[in-house]
## 1
Amino acid sequence: MSKQILVSGFGGQGILSLGKILAKAAIVEDKNATWFPSYGAEVRGGTAHCFVKISKEPIASPFVEYPDIGIILNQPSLDKYRKQFKKRCFLILNSDLIGSDSVNKGIKKISLPLNKMALECGSLKVTNIIALGILVLFNPEIIKKDSVIKVLKETYRDKEILKQNLDALEKAKSLDIKI
Amino acid sequence: MQKTNKKKLMSGNEAIAEAGISAGCRFYAGYPITPQNELIAYMAQNMVKRGGVFIQAESEIAAINMVLGAAAAGVRAMTSSSGPGVSLKQEGISYLAGCELPALIVNVMRAGPGLGDISSSQSDYFQATRGGGHGDYFTPVLAPWSVEEAVKLVMLGFDIADYYRNPVLILADAIIGQMMEPVGNFDKSQFRKKKESKNWALTGAKGRPANSIKSLYLKEGVLEQHNKKLKKKWDKIRKNEQRFFVSDIADVDYLIVAYGSQARISLEAIKMLRKNNIKVGLFRPISLWPFPGKGLRKIAEKVKKILVVEQSLGQMVEDVKLNLPNKEVYFLGRAGGGVPSAGEIIKYINNKLI
């Protein structure tokens, strides 16, 4: 079965980049992947999202209806997709931009101040990678951290930027996170 | 087994562009429009580096006529656009067909009519499969359902165009254009038939009789002879170039007919229905013109009911009905950017077909 991932936030939070890094990491692991973005009709201040599917088998539809993983970086995104998160879904929420984070019962939810954590790594721009770090920390069967590191090294040639991203990927590890 | 890590993550739009260049296309002219902008952007970045010509034209009409000029000179040429822009290109496509010139035209469909919206649609099926412009003509139409297949069909499309001396259309929807998938093989050698000699091209007549390329035939009876000649070509294409894909048809009660991204979404529904022992199969036309009626009729023999699913209010369904006059053919479609989901397909089959 394919793993279905929904990433959503506002434009500029690295939503589409996060999805692409995931899909590229899937290639590193010789898996199939699809990445499908929202591509332009979004309203400023509203939500941008992408769907990623990862599987060892061929993937049929690139659409995600009921995600296995949700990465939600702002309040409007959670409000938009709240109903689609069902039991056993693993949800990563950015508490800096999400005030009311109630979701259906049975969901594994991690709510952390991702903006603040990103600033501690040196840039607000790595908020998305902090979330990705949480994903790989708890779900190595979907994507391994090493595969993501490989993609980050291929993507960012600038040493300073790469370091910020690698720090961000490890950031969640230092916290004692309870699900 | 060899590792497939050489694969790159590419969008359908980028992959179509790279496939064109890999297939030997050395002339691209186009005008930007969502949802195919990554295609023209890729061409802008790469075509000149690879020894070809890239032009962002002043309009879609200019772009298609530049392609006509390049094709007349014997160069593999292509253009791309989406619905509104492809409508503008129709005059040029008709001239290409009249002049018997090969070229590749890519339509990454968006929702219409009019300027519509940029979301995915399959609303240009009629336009693509019925010639599209004025005059008696057809263009072969190929519809990919994945990024990888888009690459193959671009290469095949150029081969068909050269072989028959006719423009060929790639009809993709916005989902195929925008979505990214791993894609690896741009090796043209495995797709390309023998290279067609283009001794008809306008390359300078020094040392040989002059060539003439035109679509105007005013002398009495001459145009009709030209039309008859073209008719022979359409007949040959109808006979030889029907292509389709099937899945889950070993034991089948209900058959879904869908193309492009909608076929993938349908296959997702089929997988789920099969888990509940409902025997549903998929028939996916790859060539929309010529419509693969022969294959469909054969498979439909053993099927109880047919469901056509489209991102339109009902276009391909007419070709299905033409081919299966004695079958119960149902239709599920959405327009205006609406995409029938796997869930909707399952619900429709459970409620209406069973």
Note: The domain at 3-173 of chain A is CATH 3.40.920.10 (Pyruvate-ferredoxin Oxidoreductase; domain 3).
## 2
Amino acid sequence: MSETAAPARGLPVVGRALLDGFVRRREASVLLVALGLMFYFRAASDVFLSRDNLVNIAQATAPTAIVAVGIVLLLVSGEIDLSVGIVAAFAPFLLHFAIDYYSVPVLPAFVLALALSAFIGLVNGFIVTQLRVPSFVVTLGTFFAVQGLLLMTSHAYPVPIPEPAKGRFQTWLGAGPWASITWAVLIVTVFHVILTRTRWGLHTISVGGNPVGATEAGIRASRIKIGNFMITSALGGLAGIMEAARINTIDPNIGGGTTLTFAAISAAVIGGTALAGGSGTIVGALLGALVLAELQNGFNLIGYSANTIFLILGLAILVSMIANQYLSRLRRAGRS
Amino acid sequence: MTAALEVRHVAKRFGALTALRDITLHVDPGEVLGLIGDNGAGKSTLIKILCGFHRPDEGQILVNGDEVTLRSVDHARSLGIDAVYQDLALVNELSVYHNMFLNRELVRWPLLNNRKMRRRAEEHLRDMGVDLPDVTVEVAKLSGGQRQAIAVARSVYSDARVLLLDEPLAAMGAKEGTMILDLIRDLKQRGEVSVIIIAHNYAQVLDVCDRVNLLQQGRITFDKKAADTSLEELTDLVVAEYRRRR
């Protein structure tokens, strides 16, 4: 281990140990990618690191990161949720219905919208664990079902933010320049601790790593999975409401849907979470979301058209994934 | 004397497959019972019923003379029954000490008390004589024998009153196997724990067990004190059944 590194010339032992420790961290590779992109785009465009543009990047990172937190929990427990993006689109309408049609005060309406979002997660989790349908299929089904509900109830028309929700609520939730990223970092921190330092996290890893063994050890796998589905949907709902607050309108066609889902899954995977279950990192997912936001924003600044950006984004995801694979192989080799 | 664990006429079917027809056995406090039998005789199914993983279709289970319905693994554990499964039930992605405290984690709410778990795991493994430099490594990095030792240690140090060991020696080298057998002997000497052990090595069974039961085609067909039987008799019994079936 580190004894073999000691005789190496040039690098002092401490620096070497620090480097070792850094490379061994799962988030190391994606952090390098994020920093690399930052330098590249700063070199390519002067405004990349200006305050206004940093706000742009922060606001693009936040919703993806928040949803990715849930996706990581689900991937680690061996499941996936494709419906979370449409829940994000639906949640602000739930807020709007509660406030404007049923005169519910803003905060209870907000809680209600999140609770109903979590309920969709409960349905997902129930079908997956009790009726034993794979989560890919289940959440594909709920995706379309919720989309139907959304279009039926909203008649596919956008609505303004409800009057009582304007002002401080809207600013704090998403309209303020740093509001959404603050929430995102807070949520990432809390769930990072939950995944790495609590029983819930340990059991989430167990259920994804060895489903039979975890059950034999007495862990109630269904409860863990249903819980993680509910967390994911609730976070999806939160991200949707925050996006609505930011863009100052509740639109069934933006702020959610498949784009948000796919971005969140990409962020999780770029961040170093395995699709096979049993391992994952929430901090990595935040960095993954940052990488995606940087790519989109940076290429935009350089002047590529929106259409080209998709191609570049796709290639960039592939490249960063390949780099990630390579680095994690190095990491594994370094550890044993 | 009331048996620590008693099973009366337990049957278990999986669809058309009858795994257990009519099982009656008991283990006294402080006794080590060896359970032998062919592959597929139903030994593992029996263990999984006794630890609350499967529910029996018929029959009764008595713990210290009281009839119980084992609702779950947790429930069985709360009654002092703990098992080491054939598949070990270890999570590869977790560290040794997290595996040793899986679903029995020491918590300083709301966080895990990792330091305490690590220290206890080190103590337990050292007491057992398991040579493991670092309890923070992932279980995936360990050898088969080490993994098995950890699974056994987990149950032994769980304050269980009845220990069920499903082939605890299967993946072990001579040294590690002796270590586990010594551990079972220690437990026996202390006289607090009853053990049911499944094994294929009859010499080891006779060595460490007080009594031997033979499980054949879902029934207990043989029940003798280890002192009253011999390696030849056990081997003959199992082989005779095989001959008869041919």
Note: Chain B has a mean pLDDT of 87.
